[in-house]
Amino acid sequence: MLRTVVFLCLFSSSLLRAEAAGDSADGWGYGYDSLLNDLERWRESPYATVDSIGSSVQGRAIWMVTITGGVSESGVLVRKRRVFMHARTHPAEVQANHIANETIRLLLDSGSASRELRRDFIFNIVPMYNPDGVELGRPRENAHGVDLEGNWDKLVLEPEVTALKRQFLAFMSGPVPIEVALNLHSDQINCTRFFFFHYAAGTSPAYEDLQRKFIGRVQGRFPEGIEDWDYVRSWDNGTQLRYPEGFWWANHREEVLALTYEDANCENAGGYDSTARALAMGSADYIRDRAIAGTRPLARARFQLLADGIRIPMGATIARWDLTDMRGRRLAGGPAGPGDVFLAWNDLPESSLRILSLTRAGFPTERMRLPPGR
Fold first, then answer.
1. How confident is the model at residue 201, as a pLDDT?
2. Sign of CA pseudo-dihedral 329, 335, 341, 347
3. Can you give the pLDDT at residue 336?
4. Assigned architecture for domain 10-293
5. Predicted confidence (pLDDT) per residue in 167-218, tens digit
6. How far is CA 195 from CA 179, 238, 311, in A?
7. Model confidence at 6: pLDDT above 50
8. Shortest CA distance to 300 belongs to which of 371, 362, 239, 351?
């Protein structure tokens, strides 16, 4: 059932709350120094790697924690899947930072569930995306006075947005692309936990279905804590390119499940460990479901789009190319390599959505969504 949720004057209310409470002076209880201390502790784990993905306006490093297992832990080499989370876009929403930290704690734990997550997945977590705003006590902006959440479609991007977008692009062109991208926030009005669901008017009916499945998987891990998928709906007037999710939809459509998650931001907020577990385990459940359906997104660096067709430079490699529709039904295919392969646009079957993929030694290695109308 669709419920009415009040978001009036969100900016002004968050600002007044921060000033009235006087809690911005210490980073709302978790500042940049707190993060640096935690980073030192996380670095001690053999499963964690800490890297800077770039710098803020004032030169503070934007840190990313990568957690995964290897052959030494599981005894076998497993083909990994990738989940990305970033938090603290809005400094006053410190609850998002707590969830990111609890997710890291869960992933570094010695329990069987944590070992399975490390075995099968790579988790990349940016706990504090806007460190300048945290240190300056700005509820929603960076050092330039810009709200990073709505900066993704500007001609000149803020340094923090540039750093995160560059990391997204690097992963998406590599061998293990992102399949779930979560943008962690906290809602100061309703004191609830929910996702922003995107209408088909701004995405597609297929993506609506994927969102429902994903939210259902997360909710299944925390039934009493996460609101239903239809609690808050957005994008009823089209894709909102100014947000990170708009970037994901414009570039990767159904290949990446990208959503904003809002945690509770009030005196009754808490349960961060339960929320973190639901997000991590629910993401894993969703990706495993898609693997069964054969819809895993893959790297796409090999394909070269030309005016009259597609060139696939294979060298001495021997593989197979396949063209499928959005349901995974095969439209065409054939051998690839050795040497270059050329596929003329006029020879490829028409479909509303076409996926070109390469398979080598029985494993899919590259995948690309072809542009429409070619």
1. 93
2. negative
3. 83
4. 3-Layer(aba) Sandwich (3.40)
5. 999 998 888 899 999 999 998 777 899 999 999 999 999 899 999 999 999 9
6. 17, 18, 40
7. no
8. 371
Token pair recorded at residue 371: 């542009």
Rounded to the nearest 10 degrees, what angle do helices 94-107 and 32-43 cross at? Answer: 10
Domain with CATH 3.40.630.10 in the chain: 10-293
Domain span(s) for CATH 2.60.40 in the chain = 304-369
Give residues with Cβ within 8 angstroms of 224, minimum separation 6. Answer: none
Residue 252 CB-density burial (10 A; 0-12 exposed, 13-18 middle, 19+ buried): buried
Q: Residue 35: CB partners within 8 Å, gap ≥ 6?
A: 63, 97, 127, 128, 131
Indicate the helix (H) or strand (E) that contains 265: none
- Cβ atoms of 52 and 61 within 8 Å: the answer is yes
Name the 3-class secondary structure at 85: strand
Backbone angles phi, psi at 233, to 5 degrees: -115, 145
Q: Which two tokens stand for residue 33?
A: 């120094």
CATH classification of 304-369 is 2.60.40, yes or no?
yes
pLDDT digits (tens, 9 = 90+) for 350-362: 876 787 877 765 5
Helices (H) and strands (E) in the chain, counts: 10, 15
**Residue 34 Cα distances to 52, 59, 140, angstroms:** 16, 17, 19
Name the one residue in this structure whose structure tokens are 């500042």: 31
Q: Are strands 178-187 and 257-264 parallel, antiparallel or unpaired?
A: parallel
Matching residue, tokens 């939809």? 249
pTM of the predicted model over 0.85: no
Task: Let me know if 193 is exposed, middle or buried by CB neighbors in 10 A (0-12, 13-18, 19+).
Answer: buried
